[in-house]
Amino acid sequence: MGLLILSGGAASAASDGASTPSVFVEAPSIVLGPVGQNEQVEHEFRLENRGKGDLLIEEVRADCDVVTGNLAGHRIGSGSSAVLPARWETGDHRGPMKRAIEVETNDPERPVVRLEIGAWVCQDFAVHPQSLVLSREAGSAVFSGTLSLLQCSDERLTLARVDASATWLRSSALPLGAGREGYRLTVIADGEAAKGGAVEVLSLHFDQGGPIVVDVPVMVPVASEGRTAEP
Asked: Which residue has the higher pLDDT, 211 or 222?
């Protein structure tokens, strides 16, 4: 009898586990590139259900100035997902900003999921990232990366030239586009000539009501044998 009771209990537990939801968010914390003052920051989080039972979104709580989609009461079937949009306005803030959202679900292992959105708010201009590690795609002979130079005020930003501390490091610039003022720089290093592990410098010379120079450290990865590494 005891064995039968234990067997029945195990079967019941297995049955309960088979109907349990499991919430998953691939990137619960993100940091966006630079944005200007009084701009809207937007992002979409995808909530997945990797369990067997329906995932119920019981409540969505966010910082007071964050507007989110209304997913409270929404059910996500097994193997399905739902998108939670979020946005807020930067106002006259300057520097780093972070906002948080909490999603309460019926997942017994993870009843509350915390989501975070970060952004850097610039006043006049911003260079992103502030240091750059180049990478190489499979089959390519060169290393590359991108920099963004963003105009954040009404004062027009004009890129005059870019100087490199190494002859094997070069760049090309194009307008950012998509309604944003500034430039996107493609930085390229010759894989044969590049010195893996060395930190070189790109000097960005631009004008915004006067001459400005910003130095950006640039590095090519190094392999254990001292040659530039495959990514």
From this structure: 211
User: Is-contact 64 53, C-beta < 8 A?
Assistant: no
What is the SS3 assignment for 99-154?
EEEEEEECCCCCCEEEEEEEEEEECCEEEECCCEECECCCCCCEEEEEEEEEECCC
Q: Report CA 103 to chain centroid distance, whole Å.
A: 20
Give all domains of the chain, ordered by start, each with its CATH number.
21-122 (2.60.40.10), 125-219 (2.60.40.1230)
| Residue among 169, 162, 154, 224 nearest 200 (CA) | 169
- Tell me the HSE value of 13 on the side-chain side, using a 13 A CA sphere: 6
Cα dihedral sign, 214-129-229-188: negative
Q: Which residue has the tokens 């909530």?
A: 47
Q: Which residues, in sequence order, are CB contacts of 65 under 8 Å at separation 6+?
A: 88, 89, 99
Cα–chain-centroid distance for residue 170? 26
pLDDT digits over 158-213, tens only?
899 999 998 889 999 998 876 678 899 999 988 777 777 888 999 999 888 888 89
Q: Is the peptide bond before 129 cis (omega within 30 degrees of 0)?
A: yes
How high does pLDDT run on average in the chain? Answer: 84
Residue with tokens 């070189």: 200
0.90 surpassed by pTM: no
